[in-house]
Amino acid sequence: VQLQASGGGFVQAGGSLRLSCQASTRTVANWMGWFRRAPGKEREFVADINWSGGLRNYADSVKGRFTISQDNAKNTVYLQMNSLKPEDTAIYYCAARRGRSAQYEYWGQGTLVTVSS
User: Does the pLDDT at position 21 exceed 90?
Assistant: First the structure.
């Protein structure tokens, strides 16, 4: 599975961005997720979704501000990020896994999100 992430950029605190991740196929891995790595910190989970769209998970730090969604026709998963905070500044990575209990094994390149105060 090849993953192509896009949509990062520079935004002021309180602003919004939408990240996109297009997968080469949906038939191998049926869960898609977003992770991020802030400067000087370890990578952390942000949100994930299965391709049917019925199940979603969010990190506590983004609940109520970020929304993950999917467009099966485009093999694309989105991360709508609202009310952005400076602490959301990070490189965001999309990833895919075969099942709900599997490890994330397919990774895309990162896209940088910078939130200024």
Answer: yes
